[in-house]
Design goal:
homodimer; 229 residues; four-stranded antiparallel beta sheet; globular; DNA-binding
Chain lengths: 229, 229
Amino acid sequence: MTALDGAITECMGLSIFSGISRTGLKELFHGGQVVTSAHREHLFEVGDSASFFGVVLSGAYKLSKPSAVGEDVIVHFSTPGDVVAAFIIAMPNTVYPVTAIAMGPSRFLKLPRENYGTIWKSNLDLIFKIQNLLSTRMGHLQDEKVLMKAPLSQKVASLLMSLLENNPDGETTLRLPLTRKEIADSVGASVESVIRIMSEWSKQGIICTNEQHINLLKIEKLIEILREH
Amino acid sequence: MTALDGAITECMGLSIFSGISRTGLKELFHGGQVVTSAHREHLFEVGDSASFFGVVLSGAYKLSKPSAVGEDVIVHFSTPGDVVAAFIIAMPNTVYPVTAIAMGPSRFLKLPRENYGTIWKSNLDLIFKIQNLLSTRMGHLQDEKVLMKAPLSQKVASLLMSLLENNPDGETTLRLPLTRKEIADSVGASVESVIRIMSEWSKQGIICTNEQHINLLKIEKLIEILREH
DNA sequence: CGCTCGGTTGATGCACATCAAAGGCTGTGG
DNA sequence: CCACAGCCTTTGATGTGCATCAACCGAGCG
């Protein structure tokens, strides 16, 4: 229970729950529990019957789908404050369309699916905030599609810039610990190609990595790369 | 007014409005008007301030975004019964993120943005149906992303198969009139490459085109192509 | 001390894009 | 009625961005 109380406190700061009182959150989170995931631990797998949704509290999870070749494609990075699987839960009898895997130690507020149909659904304001969340996520997918024909460097630059949006102003080091492989899986390229591009950027001092944390030193340069051609 | 009445009748058959009475629809469509678009006519442009949303009545519209190169990328084909721009309208002060262009003569039920915030919003059931619509559309975008690394033939096959979903059972000729260029813009390839693949299929009797209407003669073959490698 | 994991580099090949040219078809204006 | 422009399709020749394969290094770890 104390973990849940802590989670409630954490959630009060999130924009998606703004305007909701502590007791309101207690209701929304009824029957919920905080789960902690180790690095690379699976929260749920594609094809599992969808029995819960929830909120990312700390760390991060990557949502990926297996491709025909067996290689996974990452469709979304879920960072703290992100609501996961809410849209799926809204539909009857569904399975998760993606696998959720922890990137580094992470914490997740796990809520029973029933909550959505009852308590969450009755909060119209919340429903619309979730719809907006879904809408912006779709916007990102569309933006990626637009870059389909663009050179790989632009895809990588675009990914890094979009991850920057989660950062507080001025902070240029991405919160998310990202391996080159994960970048490759996200933009649909091979690790080697991503490495070739990023080590070139490192040489030029545009970016700088340590311990999988990427620091975007010269954002103007990245923007320039996006405009190229 | 009579055109609007006709539109109401047409909409009564749509699953998204199921369970809503004629008078209910009259309310939802208050202030609406039926616009007819000629082939290639623009319904709205990317960047326009979003003043209306609506329902496709007949024909079809392609939703596309301009890429850096100037070439357009098609993000969605909207066919009859599809609700367009509802998610955008839900957010305050937004512009259209895509351009909508008629594919052949088409008809569109144009509704003032105010309706969404007032009448539509108060129908919880409708809101959730729209959310599901958004959710499945996002699912398609994700599926496309998974195919990023797949050979072009699979992307084209996947597109054709997904368009088949709109068809009544047994009907294998796509309702949507599609040019090779549109297919290319949708899967992120060049016209020539799409043509090379599809004319090979034509020779093999897998598909058959006339007047931009594509008939999928051997669906098993297409499924086989999707499973390959 | 072997193991896996993340990063890196070079050599080779292929699936596409790109460029070029041409023919049919439709609509439009002189 | 013809000329002309745009659009759609097609085919061939040529080039290239990136995947693939192969090998190697350092770091953490049981």
